[in-house]
Amino acid sequence: MTINRARVLSCLAGASVAFFAMGAAAADLAAPQEAPTAYEALSTKSPWQLRVRALGVITEDKGSVNGQPGVGLEYSDTVVPELDITYFFTENFAAELILGTTYAKINTTGALGDLDVGKTWLLPPSLMLQYHFTDFGAFKPYVGAGVNYSFFYNQSDKGDFSNVDVEDDFGAVLQVGFDYMFDEHWGLNFDVKKIFLETEWTATHDALGPLSGKAKIDPWLIGAGVTYRF
């Protein structure tokens, strides 16, 4: 009887150990996983974003010709494609490189009449530092400020003008816009930028001789397009 009682107690002890071991394992499996921290959530999201926009370029139509009062310049407005590449340092702070090219026809105004000076192509890459607001759900507004450097190329003359040359120059840029995201990757974008651009220009006219002055273009860039966040 003593031996049987010892065997029963031994079996009960082993079963108890096994039961508590299984319970502990089950508790570990059932334990809720900790929510990822903000840093962990951010680190899983790509910092790269692309935008493709249709861009309207609306100029200020200001300038001077040989410093003569009542004589100015005007430039044609255009619609062109634009590509933007954005890198997010955090969900709020980002840098954006803006790429696109456009052209402008240049005319005189005022006392000289409407003279067709020529045409120039313009490549105005801009580098922006942006702040993105993240408290409005799918609606994600942002503001930005940066610097622009405008390259003028393929400059051509018209009529009695020759040697038209518009100089490359720096300008400041301000920006406001928003993305409306349909999901984690795709969204629509609306964007407005103002470039403060004033440069020098020269040309020669058959009757008037050498001409020079300032071309104050100061364009508004109004764009709408598609956003893709990697």
UniProtKB/TrEMBL annotation:
Keyword match Signal: yes
One Pfam family here: OmpW
Taxonomic superkingdom: Bacteria
This protein's record includes keyword Protease: no
Secretion signal span: 1-26
PANTHER family: OUTER MEMBRANE PROTEIN W, PTHR36920
Family: Belongs to the OmpW/AlkL family.
Protein name stated in the entry: Outer membrane protein
Species whose genome carries this gene: Neorhizobium huautlense
